[in-house]
């Protein structure tokens, strides 16, 4: 198989290189903050956008040139596509990939045939993993594309659709385990509502909680020890998604006693749709012990939908890496849930897109590591909160005082001590300075 004859293997050539098929910043073996870049970043190629995206949109049909794909939903074509995918992973030097069940294998006439199709392609995936050393970061089930899921999967009003979804996740978990997947992801594609007039929200959320507990139980039954992940998104395709942002997801997990079993997979474009910066969502999940992985993409701020573009903005990647270096990713990764633009239709564009974003994250990693190592931001933050290190601050934080005692204190003082500057502009200048140094 040689689907990408222009590419041998993408290698690191350094910042001065003008080779578009080489890394300028991503050097997998370079040690940064105690680990190699490869260990920090755990880059992951998504099967769906990279090998199933056709370029169609609501205003026009397919544009992508994919010579290896015969356009059919046959198992033979799916197996061939899998081999091409691993050629891409290998030439890109990507250590991980991720898939939905329907990305890799077509649905059959019934569930039994669908499962058989999945097994046939999974056998090829396993062979290719063994041949290349590329690993599965996570698997998941597509429970949003088929019309049966029009009202949702775990939150559907149709009990047999719930049962079908359970069977589909059961199979996807089995395949993920067999392929050595390190995580299993739940994205609630249609787990939400369009209209509250026809929605029993409590019942739907109760059913979602039961569904996740069934998944936890089955993981124990089959010995799957990978991390379960939930991916927040506030809207699309439903008007309101139940997993709307990190705070909503973590509240749901606490309410349904699932915090011991799930972490979050945070996506930049989804954070934007929720009215948050990516840094906010990462920090909120991280400080609650719920950060598990990220979807590395970005949206167009002039467009109000999920455009899933490749992230190449150094400010964004630096902000992301500042948080990831603080909390870590565990078994998660930097997952390129991103697609080339409709107009970037040639196969080689897949390499240009991934290389550029891998470099952007590598540079963000180096900048963030330098900022943390030299305390350029942390020292200013520590100084801003220094009053809380006083005896009074320690008493409040340890719960050793009360309103009456604090009132007595302030009646004696008459007024609070003056505030110090937030130094926002200085901090923004500091980040610029570190970017300039690279």
From TrEMBL:
<dbReference type="GO" id="GO:0000287">
    <property type="term" value="F:magnesium ion binding"/>
</dbReference>
<dbReference type="InterPro" id="IPR036237">
    <property type="entry name" value="Xyl_isomerase-like_sf"/>
</dbReference>
<feature type="binding site">
    <location>
        <position position="267"/>
    </location>
    <ligand>
        <name>Mg(2+) 2</name>
    </ligand>
</feature>
<feature type="binding site">
    <location>
        <position position="308"/>
    </location>
    <ligand>
        <name>Mg(2+) 2</name>
    </ligand>
</feature>
<keyword id="KW-0413">Isomerase</keyword>
<feature type="binding site">
    <location>
        <position position="267"/>
    </location>
    <ligand>
        <name>Mg(2+) 1</name>
    </ligand>
</feature>
<feature type="binding site">
    <location>
        <position position="231"/>
    </location>
    <ligand>
        <name>Mg(2+) 1</name>
    </ligand>
</feature>
<dbReference type="GO" id="GO:0009045">
    <property type="term" value="F:xylose isomerase activity"/>
</dbReference>
<feature type="active site">
    <location>
        <position position="103"/>
    </location>
</feature>
<keyword id="KW-0479">Metal-binding</keyword>
<keyword id="KW-0460">Magnesium</keyword>
<dbReference type="GO" id="GO:0005737">
    <property type="term" value="C:cytoplasm"/>
</dbReference>
<dbReference type="GO" id="GO:0042732">
    <property type="term" value="P:D-xylose metabolic process"/>
</dbReference>
<comment type="similarity">
    <text>Belongs to the xylose isomerase family.</text>
</comment>
<comment type="subunit">
    <text>Homotetramer.</text>
</comment>
<feature type="binding site">
    <location>
        <position position="306"/>
    </location>
    <ligand>
        <name>Mg(2+) 2</name>
    </ligand>
</feature>
<feature type="binding site">
    <location>
        <position position="270"/>
    </location>
    <ligand>
        <name>Mg(2+) 2</name>
    </ligand>
</feature>
<protein>
    <recommendedName>
        <fullName>Xylose isomerase</fullName>
        <ecNumber>5.3.1.5</ecNumber>
    </recommendedName>
</protein>
<keyword id="KW-0963">Cytoplasm</keyword>
<keyword id="KW-0119">Carbohydrate metabolism</keyword>
<feature type="binding site">
    <location>
        <position position="337"/>
    </location>
    <ligand>
        <name>Mg(2+) 1</name>
    </ligand>
</feature>
<feature type="active site">
    <location>
        <position position="100"/>
    </location>
</feature>
<dbReference type="InterPro" id="IPR013452">
    <property type="entry name" value="Xylose_isom_bac"/>
</dbReference>
<keyword id="KW-0859">Xylose metabolism</keyword>
<feature type="binding site">
    <location>
        <position position="295"/>
    </location>
    <ligand>
        <name>Mg(2+) 1</name>
    </ligand>
</feature>
<dbReference type="InterPro" id="IPR001998">
    <property type="entry name" value="Xylose_isomerase"/>
</dbReference>
